[in-house]
Amino acid sequence: MRQRIVTLSRTYRFSAAHYYHDPGLDDAANARLFGKCANQHGHGHNYRCEVRLRGVPAVETGMLFDLRTLDRIVHETVLERLDHRNLNAEVEAFATQQPTCENLAGFVWETLAPQLPPGLLDAVRLYETDDLWAEYRG
Amino acid sequence: MRQRIVTLSRTYRFSAAHYYHDPGLDDAANARLFGKCANQHGHGHNYRCEVRLRGVPAVETGMLFDLRTLDRIVHETVLERLDHRNLNAEVEAFATQQPTCENLAGFVWETLAPQLPPGLLDAVRLYETDDLWAEYRG
Amino acid sequence: MRQRIVTLSRTYRFSAAHYYHDPGLDDAANARLFGKCANQHGHGHNYRCEVRLRGVPAVETGMLFDLRTLDRIVHETVLERLDHRNLNAEVEAFATQQPTCENLAGFVWETLAPQLPPGLLDAVRLYETDDLWAEYRG
Amino acid sequence: MRQRIVTLSRTYRFSAAHYYHDPGLDDAANARLFGKCANQHGHGHNYRCEVRLRGVPAVETGMLFDLRTLDRIVHETVLERLDHRNLNAEVEAFATQQPTCENLAGFVWETLAPQLPPGLLDAVRLYETDDLWAEYRG
Amino acid sequence: MRQRIVTLSRTYRFSAAHYYHDPGLDDAANARLFGKCANQHGHGHNYRCEVRLRGVPAVETGMLFDLRTLDRIVHETVLERLDHRNLNAEVEAFATQQPTCENLAGFVWETLAPQLPPGLLDAVRLYETDDLWAEYRG
Amino acid sequence: MRQRIVTLSRTYRFSAAHYYHDPGLDDAANARLFGKCANQHGHGHNYRCEVRLRGVPAVETGMLFDLRTLDRIVHETVLERLDHRNLNAEVEAFATQQPTCENLAGFVWETLAPQLPPGLLDAVRLYETDDLWAEYRG
User: Fold this and answer.
1) Please, which chains are in contact with A (at least 3 CB pairs closer than 8 A)?
2) pLDDT one-digit tens code per residue, B15-27
3) Residues of D near C (CB-CB distance < 8 A)?
4) Which residue of F91, F103, F110 is the best one to mutate when testing the A interface, meaning the one whose CB has the most A CBs within 10 A?
5) Nearest to A64 by CA among A103, A104, A120
């Protein structure tokens, strides 16, 4: 049996609140720039996060990585910080960048990559709704 | 062609933030009662709302109700008040009841029913996530 | 083991074209009444049809009805007439009624019910899109 | 605020193997009766189970039932017995009835109902695939 | 915060009718070549179109591109021409090429790309049904 | 009209049973390694398999490949061997490798590629559940 390079994806979910706000602009300018998303009371989403790994599965297990270990790492380092949170108020990374799905994909990548064997993480795809997602590949 | 009694359902979507809080309890008791949902920074969801009508379609149009009219009514009376809102802070009805999907289904029913011909509204089903919904039938 | 009354649902799919047109009205009035759906060149949908049966499963098989038989009946009597068809031009029933999902649900019921054991058919739910369906129960 | 009777549904998932076999019939007759499902090596499904409750939400919580408690009950009494199991070989109830989705819905109802407050359980809907489900209401 | 290259995808929907026909062939040959899709009365689909952009999000907004602007461009240049249309009869591009999902993906790319900043459009994925899609990347 | 290189994806489904077992380990070690999946009675899944092709559509048909031919090849060479099967007991390839979704994606690729024109097959993506998939690209 030949060695195969395979991509594996596992989906995680979290629910969070967010809003968009540029502190250098007044309220009217924020509303023009961000529309309904500028409402500082916040709104929220059921986010889905696809974590994609890439490499050669182990011959004995046929697996790229142990999924129970992956689940534990994602829960401890990502979901604990994002699930049932207000991203603006409670996640330090979003004090200095907008909590868009573009930036969330980057945040999850930068959080996860150091926890995984070098080169294993292939992509992070972050769904804000079923119809809007961002993907970052490091 | 015989007259048929038909149910018709149309789905609407909104994104909102919420949390659960009983003002008669202290923070520890709220946390015990509501778990992660007690976080007063709020979290959020992509809600889906099925509006179900029931009756006999008009012979000329084959339709139970004009969907453009239904869309307008739902947008003006329901989505305007819920979409991109913090339900606790911005929707008066949830100052005195928890913004659970049970109560949201009731709120949507009570908001919509007076706007529609008597007897037309059959049910409101409110999805908080793909896996959790509440339905109220007046 | 007690006898249980169970509902069983099986989903079928077809793709068809349709439009709405009232021959007693001129083009402008049809456009006002039906909007984009009045375009007589037609448009189309991926329809889904849930056929629901209700009754007591046979003890030996644990089944309400043989699904291969149901599939054959639905294909021969319903899908043959609707799939890859223009409903207005090719399905006689829609020469005298608009091909709305309300009327399609009625058409499928009236087509299927005589082919099945009396009392077995419980409901027909017809999805025109993921967000719009009609249900008819005879 | 008036008291409302609400239906609440929560979805659970399990993966299991099964096959259909009538011990009173020979292999050829089983194959005729059950087709591909007669293969005694077994095949399997990703099942989804909707547990529906019905009643009046508590005023303080806005909830029909505590979801963490419901999750615990469903995991301990239903999912522990069905998830990652061969239904024919490992679930006693299916030694004497076929593990069809009709019978699985009945099994889940009869397992769950005694664990919940009387009258709370409204329906169990069991999806064998996205396109085939059975529902039992006690 | 480092600059990240991100892919962003937004989904749009339209409903249209189509059929396949080669004018150089007679009806029997068209039927052999295209099967049910050769029916010139037309049939139809609920199409979904994923528009993917790629680049570096703006630091101030955390966004790759303003979504309200993208929505307006897609509606004006793509959806206006395809939604509730008969692709064969009403879209000039499909007078000289079959309206397959392969060609639709190409059509959407070629329509959208000149409306967007150079290099921003990354891919167009066109779903004809949930189970069949084509993707074109310019 | 310019020549376009397009990717086309078509989804197939099968239901199968499997389990994970390393014959060089005792039962306790298998249970530690594979968790619930080590249960040799087997469990199962509704698998989905995306077959992706890549190339230039024919000008006359606008199609990359005849879908009826693709369906026939996939049914005869892949689905016949996997659908309603116990992968461990009935598929020779999985006597010497674990039937993980990583290995299933590889198996489908290696089975399909020789049946198709050289270079046409672009990727095989194998979903074990909605939330877990593996992709192999030869």
Assistant:
1) B, E, F
2) 999 999 999 999 9
3) 20, 22, 24, 33-35, 96-103, 105-106, 130-137
4) F103
5) A120
Long-range contacts of B78-82 (CB under 8 A, 24+ apart): B78/B12, B78/B14, B78/B49, B78/B108, B78/B111, B78/B112, B79/B12, B79/B14, B81/B111, B82/B14, B82/B16, B82/B47
Range E85-93, long-range pairs (CB < 8 A, 24+ positions): E85/C39, E85/C41, E85/C43, E85/E16, E85/E17, E86/C17, E86/C39, E86/C41, E86/C42, E86/C43, E86/E16, E86/E17, E86/E18, E86/E42, E87/E16, E87/E17, E87/E18, E88/E17, E88/E18, E88/E19, E88/E21, E88/E42, E89/C41, E90/C41
Q: pTM for the full model? A: 0.97
Q: Rounded CA gap, C115 and C77, in Å?
A: 8
pLDDT of residue E1: 55
Could you tell me which residues of chain C have a Cβ less than 8 Å from any Cβ in chain B? 20, 22, 24, 33-35, 96-103, 105-106, 130-137
What CA–CA distance (Å, rounded) separates E43 from C47? 11
Contact D11/B132, CB-based, under 8 Å? Answer: yes
Would you say residue B97 has pLDDT above 70?
yes
Tell me the C-alpha distance between A52 and A125, whole Å.
8
Q: Which residues of chain C have pLDDT under 70?
A: 1-2
The dihedral formed by the CA atoms of A84, A87, A90 and A95, expressed in degrees to the nearest 10: 170
* ipTM confidence score: 0.95
Asked whether residue F15 carries a pLDDT value surpassing 70, the answer given is yes
Out of F102, F130, F133, closest to residue A63 by CB: F102
CA of B100: which chain D residue's CA is closest?
A: D62
Is F37 part of the annotated catalytic residue set? yes
Alpha-carbon F110 to chain mean position = 9
Chain E: give the shortest CA distance to residue A38, in Å.
Answer: 11
Which of F110, F125, F115, F137 lies closest to F47 in space, CA to CA?
F125
The residues of C that are catalytic are 37, 84, 128
Residue D26 and residue D65 in contact, taking contact as beta carbons nearer than 8 Å: no
Q: Which of E21, E49, E101, E128 is catalytic?
A: E128
- Long-range interactions of C109-113: CB distance < 8 A, separation 24+: C109/C136, C109/C137, C109/C138, C111/C77, C111/C78, C111/C81, C112/C51, C112/C73, C112/C74, C112/C77, C112/C78, C113/C138
Bridge partners, residue D55, by sequence: D6
Q: DSSP secondary structure string, D14-60?
A: EEEEE----TTS-HHHHHHHHGGGG-TT-EEEEEEEEEEEEEPPPTT
Contact: A134, E7; criterion CB under 8 Å: yes
Identify whether the C-beta of residue D54 lies closer than 8 Å to the C-beta of residue D7.
yes
Find the mean pLDDT for residues D113-123: 98
Cβ atoms B124, B49 nearer than 8 A: yes
> Among B4, B7, B62, whose Cβ lies nearest the Cβ of C98?
B62
The pLDDT value recorded for residue F111 is 98
Length of chain E: 138
Q: Is the pLDDT of residue F2 over 70?
A: no
- What is the per-residue pLDDT for E26? 97
pLDDT at B3: 87
From residue E51, give the alpha-carbon distance in Å to each of A35, C46, E107, E135, F4: 21, 21, 12, 10, 17
pLDDT tens digits along D29-57: 999 999 999 999 999 999 999 999 999 99
d(CA A112, CA A90): 19
**At residue B116, what are phi and psi to the nearest 5 degrees?**
-115, 160
Q: So what's the pLDDT on residue C31?
A: 97
Residue E133 and residue F8: Cβ atoms within 8 Å?
yes
Is A1's pLDDT higher than 70? no
Among F43, F84, F101, F135, the one annotated catalytic: F84
